[in-house]
Write a structure and sequence with these properties.
The protein is α/β, with parallel strands linked by helices. About 45% of the residues lie in helices and about 15% in strands. The strands form two sheets. Strands 4, 5, 6, 7, 8, 9 and 10 form a seven-stranded mixed sheet that branches. The protein has a three-stranded mixed sheet with strand order 1-3-2. The relative contact order is 0.10.
Length: about 450
């Protein structure tokens, strides 16, 4: 007997057809976004009043999709593009320690600003006075318009102003967004997939030559904002070393031979599991913080939190590891030693103000002129004393306005700059990277 389609099944089928129609309509105006627009898997979820996503699925409820398509089809175009842009800009995975409601609002404003700036026929709308006024204020920001910048802009708003903005810019449901400290493997995989999609989308956009349009430039800037954190993470991995660690290497272990021997001989495997595995991790590492008068304590704190978080994300440590955090202006002011991930989480907690210990919170000390040489001399003394036997590298976080050492170090050295720096002044043997602190350091 043929299946008789129920009303619910019919509504779901029609909703999915509408979503495909919406996807194609956006594609006609934004051809460089083909891969991104088709990346989410549709999944019906009753009770939703709008779209939602976890980076893998586009959740929808049939009733509002059918109703809105009949009365205001363009809203569906905007809402669909809105969800996709959240994924491209990595908003789902960048909350950190920010206050949740304000972060959600900042992300919504960032995406709506981008869509309105694009001004495409499929999503164009008349702007309310509140939107126009908000966009004008954001244009005055010197650091571009990303969710992180908007979040700081919102800190000066009253509760009434925040509520008005939340009503104005609300578009999608963020209930499935990841909490930074407890991302599931699925969410982590989704994040990596959207990293690839964002790169491909940016490449397609540049190939199609749309850079002259204001909206396209804003889109590109938001993608770069999400990419800066990943770029810094890749840079940090250059300081890891290859070594053996004691645990079973499942990639090299032939389970078939092992289990066959147990079946044939009872308790005698034909091949033993390999008890060690070569892994790329950090053994000994030095982070130097420039605490001179010209460097902001807020930026120093944010940089240190970001660095420590990235190092813990990828299981970066051997069982016996050591990280030393030096604070230095024209002399070494403080030396903190980290020997475990537990120590890292403790310092992050202190920096973020979540708790303090009996010794007080992690304190930034300094305020003098900038001289890089004392930190390198101090590290050499530690090496001579045998306190640093396997130094993998040194990171120096600075604004670049100081006296550099002339002698080449025997370990990897990198200067991380907050802003434009004098390329000629940096020793040729040192690595260098210009950070984008306004995009991710303040997120903590």
């Amino acid at each position: 007997m043929p299946h008789i389609q129920s009303q619910t099944e019919w509504e779901e089928e029609m909703s999915i057809k509408i979503l495909h129609f919406v996807q194609n309509e956006i594609y006609l105006d934004l051809r460089f976004m083909q891969q991104a627009l088709s990346a989410l898997v549709y999944r019906r979820m009753d009770g939703l009043s709008t779209f939602a996503t976890d980076g893998v699925h586009l959740y929808f409820s049939s009733e509002p999709v059918l109703r809105i398509f009949k009365t205001n089809a363009m809203y569906l175009d905007r809402a669909y593009l809105h969800v996709v842009l959240h994924c491209i800009f990595k908003h789902l995975w960048m909350k950190g320690n920010r206050e949740k409601n304000r972060w959600n609002l900042a992300c919504d404003i960032a995406v709506e600003y981008t869509i309105d700036a694009m001004g495409k026929p499929c999503t164009k709308r008349i702007l309310s006075w509140l939107r126009q006024n908000t966009y004008e204020q954001l244009k005055k920001e010197k650091n571009g318009v990303s969710a992180a910048v908007i979040y700081r802009y919102l800190t000066n708003k009253t509760e009434e102003e925040l509520q008005a903005l939340a009503i104005e810019f609300y578009t999608d449901d963020h209930r499935f967004w990841a909490e930074e400290e407890k991302q599931s493997p699925m969410m982590q995989q989704a994040k990596e997939n959207w990293d690839k999609i964002a790169r491909q989308t940016t490449l397609e956009k540049s190939r199609k030559g749309d850079e002259s349009e204001d909206g396209e430039e804003i889109f590109a800037a938001q993608v770069r904002a999400g990419k800066s954190r990943r770029k810094y993470g890749d840079f940090l991995r250059k300081f890891s070393v290859l070594s053996e660690e004691l645990h079973c290497d499942l990639e090299e272990f032939e389970l078939g031979f092992y289990s066959y021997g147990l079946r044939l001989y009872g308790n005698l495997p034909l091949i033993e599991p390999i008890e060690t595995k070569e892994v790329q991790k950090i053994r000994e590492f030095v982070i130097v913080l420039d605490t001179s008068y010209s460097t902001s304590g807020e930026l120093i704190s944010g940089f240190l939190q970001e660095t420590l978080r990235i190092l813990t994300e990828k299981n970066s440590f051997f069982a016996k590891s050591q990280i030393r955090i030096l604070q230095c202006d024209n002399q070494v002011r403080r030396d903190e030693v980290i020997r475990s991930e537990e120590d890292i989480y403790h310092i992050i907690g202190q920096l973020s103000g979540k708790y303090t210990d009996g010794k007080g919170s992690f304190e930034i000390v300094g305020g003098g002129s900038t001289d890089f040489r004392p930190a390198f001399a101090y590290v050499e003394e530690l090496r001579k004393k045998g306190e640093l036997k396997h130094l993998g590298g040194l990171l120096y976080f600075t604004d670049g306005k100081g006296i550099y050492p002339k002698k080449r170090t025997e370990y990897k050295t990198a200067f991380l700059f907050l802003e434009d720096y004098d390329e000629a002044a940096v020793p040729p043997w040192a690595m260098r990277l210009q950070l984008e602190p306004e995009e991710w350091i303040h997120e903590h």
